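Sharing in case it's useful to others searching the archive later.

Someone asked me privately for the predicted structure of HMA domain-containing protein, so I'm posting the question and my answer publicly. Question first, with the sequence:
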Amino acid sequence: MKTYQFHTNINCGNCIAKVTPALNEEFDILEWSVDTDNPKKVLTVKGEDELTEAQVMAAVEKVGFKIEKAG
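And my answer, the predicted structure tokens:
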């Protein structure tokens, strides 16, 4: 399993609701969460070994949010 972390502008429950379908439709993503209390709004994604950062970033950007690799 791979784990990625990203900084985003997903900052509230409505934002999470908007991005949920996009992340849930990615078959290689097993679980994900957004720490909206963190100033950098950290998105943590766990997925199959085939999952790439580009897949996650494309899914989030598709629904209009900013995302960049953490670290």
